[in-house]
Amino acid sequence: MFCASAYKNLTLVSGEAPKEPVVSKKSGHVYERRLIEQYIDEHGADPVTKEPLTTDDLLTLQSTPRTAFPRPPTHSSVPSLLGALQNEYDAMVFETLELRKQYDAVRQDLAHALYTNDASMRVIARLMKERDDAREALASVHASLGGASASGDVDMAHDEAPSAPGATLPDDVAAAIDATAARESGERRARIKRGAPAPYPTPATASSLHETQSTSALHSASSPGIQSLDVSANGTLLLTGGLDKSVLVLERATDKVLATLQGHTQAVTAVAFSGRSNAVAGPASSEAPLPPYAVSASADKTVRVWRHTGESYELLHVLDAQAEVTGVDVHPTDAYVGCASSDGAWALYALDSGACLLRVPPPTHASDDGAGFAYTSFAFHPDGQLAATGTADGAIRVWDVKLGRQSALFTGHAGAVHTLHFAPNGYLLAAASRDDAHAKIWDLRKLAVTRTVEAAPGIEQVRFDPTAQLLAIVGADVRVMGGKTLEPYFVSEPCTLPATSVQWSPVDGALLVAGLDRTVRTYLP
């Protein structure tokens, strides 16, 4: 055992009591093992006697009970104790301050998160309210509100509104129409808001549109002229109907005629591809398959359905419309085709079987609304639940497709409404007459004209682009309107012969224009 007096020798090395004491066999001095071993490694001698010393000369000391180490010199007086306590208190205060700062930061982050959540909930609530209002407004087109608008341009349907006596769609057809409407209604807002990536034309770039391609000498020169035009959803095929009674399928990239579809005995008045109703704007549409069906209508009172087979199209059905067909459109389900004829009837057919699913004939008695039923145009709403027919006396009748019942009547055009097109957003309907020098934009939510767009006299066709940002009007010239106010962004030179039909390619936004000069022109920014 070693005594406290042995600690006096330690001041020569560390000045503190050893935690692991050892004694030198040669000198008898007590050292801290860690320090004496370090000294021996460096000097090889005893730090006191300077005699040679090795670690083998050291003996470990055992103490029972273990030695209580003396208090550090800084704690050996009252002032030093007070100083140590003050230091500990200061450290605790600083630590408390840091904790308070962290608490305030967390509290601020929590408040910001709660504010963001509250703002998000408000935005969601507002969007849901707008959605519900839009749905109610659209539903109001289906049902009667009991009178005309203040402008006198719109009459809503009444119980005695024209309808097909006893006409009802099969349950599976009605279910398919409802399913398509539900899907498109949910996707339409996101698709329109998303828009299309560059270089797809926008109101900002529409002013730089210029002709980039021209495909001429189409159809026969003996009865020159293209009456109607359509483009496939993937932008690769063009479909044209001519005064020469034939329908052409062209490859857009090469201008090559892939098929000449013959059989009509009079001029082709309208053509349409399936798969076009709600095409996505932008390169994503290039992945769309080739249209399985092509449809053509004619003054020979028939609608012909052509089915894609390999590299061409072959005749599948000949549908008897009983009068000159003035308008045709493929339903958004891509399973049905609708058409209107000059005798005041419109009908819905199945593309695959050719079966007539619904036919709405003109009423047997004179209508109380003062508008006639000689139809000059036809179009489906993007949701597929509504259809519109333009009449020879300047009216537009909006129909509930499932019920075959008129939902609304728009009047005010100077002459026959021979062209109409629903905007992809589902809210607007563009219509025009050759007797007017302007097109009217009807708002289905307000059931009134929301905009009158000036154009050259002799308008042949109007067409919204897939993003609903641009409106093309063709006739004596080619015009592109854009923005919420539909201001003119592009006006071409006057056409040598009238342009009769216009389409937008969903893939690249190309403006495709056909006319009586037997030419299809492509415009891009």
From TrEMBL:
Cited Pfam families: Prp19 (PF08606), U-box (PF04564), WD40 (PF00400)
PROSITE patterns linked to this entry: WD_REPEATS_1, WD_REPEATS_2, WD_REPEATS_REGION
Annotated region described as Disordered, given as residue ranges: 148-170, 184-225
GO process terms (BP): DNA repair; mRNA splicing, via spliceosome; protein K63-linked ubiquitination
Subcellular localization(s) per the UniProt record: Nucleus
GO cellular component: cytoplasm; Prp19 complex; U2-type catalytic step 1 spliceosome
Predominant subcellular localization, coarse grouping: nucleus
GO MF entry, a single one: ubiquitin protein ligase activity
Residue spans of the WD repeats: 376-409, 410-452
Keywords recorded for this protein, A-Z: Acyltransferase, DNA damage, DNA repair, mRNA processing, mRNA splicing, Nucleus, Repeat, Spliceosome, Transferase, Ubl conjugation pathway, WD repeat
Known pathway: Protein modification; protein ubiquitination
Compositionally biased intervals (Polar residues): 207-225
Xref: SMART domains: Ubox, WD40
Gene3D superfamilies named among the record's database cross-references: YVTN repeat-like/Quinoprotein amine dehydrogenase, Zinc/RING finger domain, C3HC4 (zinc finger)
Occurrences of domain U-box (ranges): 14-68
EC assignment: 2.3.2.27
InterPro entries xref list: Prp19, Prp19_cc, RING-Ubox_PRP19, Ubox_domain, WD40/YVTN_repeat-like_dom_sf, WD40_repeat_CS, WD40_repeat_dom_sf, WD40_rpt
Catalytic reaction annotation: S-ubiquitinyl-[E2 ubiquitin-conjugating enzyme]-L-cysteine + [acceptor protein]-L-lysine = [E2 ubiquitin-conjugating enzyme]-L-cysteine + N(6)-ubiquitinyl-[acceptor protein]-L-lysine
Task of the protein: Ubiquitin-protein ligase which is mainly involved pre-mRNA splicing and DNA repair. Required for pre-mRNA splicing as component of the spliceosome.
Quaternary state and interactors: Homotetramer.
Family label: Belongs to the WD repeat PRP19 family.
Protein name as catalogued: Pre-mRNA-processing factor 19
Species whose genome carries this gene: Malassezia caprae
